Every structure is written in structure tokens, then in C-alpha cells.
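Board work, copied verbatim: Methyltransferase domain-containing protein
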Amino acid sequence: MQIQARHRWRYARHWDFFRRWMRNPRTVAAVAPSSRELAQRMVDELPAGARRVIELGPGTGVMTRLLLARGLGPDGLLAVELDPALHARLQARFPQLRVLHGDARRLDALARGFVAPGELDAVVSSLGLLGMDEAGRGAVLAAAFALLRAQGCFVQFTYGARSPVSAAQLRGLGLQVRRGAFVLRNLPPATVYVYTRRQDGAPR
Ligand SMILES: C[S@@+](CC[C@H](N)C(=O)[O-])C[C@H]1O[C@@H](n2cnc3c(N)ncnc32)[C@H](O)[C@@H]1O
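↓ predict structure ↓
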């Protein structure tokens, strides 16, 4: 009975997410919520001992749940969601968590009061970076790296065959990228990428 209720809830969540994607494919950027496998691979990329994390585009909260389960308390996690309905549902699902309704491109302003510049351990992003223009991607990354500590990282997944941020844009921002796990069990399959500051002192 309990299992049936869980299946019904999951079905409703997937159907609702799909309807939101039909209405706004560029913003929602996926036909289904992330799989648990993808969420786990994203969370696995957090630096050891990470205590302050921001989640961008949490959607239905698949990754949010794992981030909280990993030991980040409500004081250690801030979630930023643009879609008003998804935001409201997420806040209802995690009433103790700070879930902001806002645009990740304005992260600098949104994160005030949560973390000081240079003190954030990681950003976990489900944003559809491929659907954004270069200026949008640049705004998200610049705002995130202004908050991240020197060794902090920006964890992103994409459905594309390569990093959603070009090598030229990464150079301009002083960043480097490492390819993480490829997750077949996701709709569609996805690859994790981890962005960090360039450590080689190369000119920007
Ligand atoms: C691929 S979906 C999220 C998948 C999520 N991991 C899940 O399992 O539900 C991308 C999410 O990013 C949100 N989003 C898109 N652009 C955004 C922006 N500029 N700022 C904040 N959230 C944004 C969308 O509303 C959507 O919830």
C-alpha cells in the first residue's frame, strides 16, 4: 500500500514536470526529473567536508534530498528555483530549507545573508546551460565563482556530448573543467562536469 502510494506520488511528480517542460522547454530543460543515479553522481563531486552549498534549478528536489541526506543542515544549503510552481512545491516539501524564488544569474544578490564572497564550498547546478546564451552562462558562472572559495567547485550536468561552456569562455573566466561520470540511467543520459578555478596561473 505504502509502495503504491509512493509510485502514485512519483508518477504525479513526473507528469507535472513533463507538463512544465511542454510549457517552457528552454527553462525547464528536461523532459523528466533527474534520476537518483545522476543526483548521486553530482553529490559525489562535492569537496570532502563541504558545509555550505548552493543548489541552482532544484526542480522537483531529487538532488536537494540527497544533499540534505549527506549531512548539510538547512543552514548549509540554499536552493534557487526560477519556476514559481516548482519553487512553491519545493518549499512545501522542505519547509525547513531556504528555497528562493529567483534567477540564478542574480546569484550574487540572492545569496546575500547566506554566505559571504569566497566562503562557499560548492554549487550544484541542474540549470539548462546549453539553452542559455553565452552572456547568461557567463553571468551564472561569474556570480557563482565570486562566492566560491579558492578550491570550491561548480558541479553541472548536461545532455550534450561536451561541456556546455566553451573552452574560450572558460579561459575568459579563468576556469578549467573536468569531465565526471556519464550516467546512462537518466532521461536522457547525462554527463557530469566539474568547473574549478585555473590553478596554473595562466593569463585570463
Ligand atoms: C533540468 S530541470 C531540473 C532537474 C532537477 N534536478 C530535478 O530533478 O527536478 C532545470 C531546472 O532549472 C530551473 N531553472 C531554469 N533556469 C533557471 C534560472 N535562471 N534560475 C534558477 N532556476 C532555473 C528550471 O525551472 C528547472 O526546475
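The CA atoms of residues 63 and 69 lie 10 Å apart.
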